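Follow-up to my post from last week.
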Amino acid sequence: MTMPKHTALYDEHIAAGGRMVEFAGYELPVHYTSLVDEHTSVRTRAGLFDVSHMGEVFITGPGALDFVQLVSCNDHSKMTVGRAQYTGLMYPQGTFVDDMLVHKLADDEYLLVVNAANRAKDAAYLGELAAGRAGVEVRDESDSWSQLAVQGPLAAEILQPSVRSDLSELNHFTFVFTEVCGRRALIARTGYTGEDGFEVYTSNEAAPEVWRAILAEGRPKGLLPAGLGARDTLRFEAGMSLYGHEIDDTTTPLEAGLGWIVKFKKGDYIGRDILESQKETGLDRRLVGFEMIDRGIARHGYPVYLGEGDLEPVGHVTSGTHSPTLGRALGLAYLPIEASEDGTEFLVEIRNRRAAARVVPMPFYRREKK
Amino acid sequence: MNVPADLKYGRTHEWARTEGDVVVVGITHYAQDQLGEVVYVELPEVGIGANAAEELGTLESVKAVSEFNSPVGGEVVEVNDRLEDEPNLVNEDPYGEGWLVKISGTTEGEDLLEAADYIAMIEAEST
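User reply:
Got it. Predicted complex:
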């Protein structure tokens, strides 16, 4: 058995009372004091996350754009330098190798931020595809980068004093190369919580100092360090997909409700044919949000049925919890297309009992834009 | 960690307190701390038989699902209905208002731990 790795912020987590668990090969805090408090602080004030486990893969060379276009279902041809875009890394079956954020660093350089659990798989997949092509190089630099996420309505106010550039000029889904605590950093106005916020990419050496500076500035304003538990409930409420749950190598972006990242006016790419025919013929199943009618909490993997006496499940729950913000038991599930309309009732099997649930509009939570 | 000296403890972090001819059962302070905020409690039906060291119900936090076992064998004669609307009592008062079930006609099944032995067990677990 391999020992879990530590991020550069491991000592900070211990100092903050983090309850450490293994996640994607890293020892990371699931929470510090209370998942619900950490969740609430991000919704109402701010939270600070160590997301250094995320992977950073660089695509460089004159063929970089063509290569990114080949592997991604979104269209990156109109991106300007300093923009970030969400997309799927595709298999020929039109399913997900991973989901990722593409950052355009230069005309011949792109940064892909990928999931920790998929990073080795992604790098190998991309490396193999690049091997047969001229003018493109794939470099996995994940081990050299730390990543901190500052998320919540007070994120800009709390991060600004540590940052050289003016964060108010940074629009949603853009980034800038700047300095944080006098150290070189890439700061993007992106996140995985449904709130305003920033993701700060910096060196492992600089990370502890940056962490402490943000904590010192933020604590008096109500910022809390937040763990993986709150990260999951926050993204869940915001209707954001998690690889291994809503999306994986058996699901297409169209089924996952991510049609907005699937573009057909961009030339050929891996998986395009399947996605195009799926769009033409229509979907068999679709990801929906639901609320429990009966008591109980639906969890990942629980089977769903349309009728009490049905023997075969028609789908499964991909994520589910008691929503800290909304105070209700909510979930996400794949349902047959004919049973996926808002208001449709169905059954979730919870420990050998079938509990009623109802399809509701997504996302569960949307922040009020200023 | 709060471990009252007058209670007996199961190895899966339940406590048992004898009150007359019934045994009151709950989860320990350590267990609720490990679990985090309890948001849902599934209790057994009154009248069913409980077997020592076997599953009796479910506690759920935002993050996780966790079963609790019966520290003693017997019959479930009462369950804490307040937990349906106030599952957080398990966190706030695990040895009092946050009790789970009452069991009568108990037959000693499991070898329950004294407080000192339970403390030694959780200390060993958390290192």
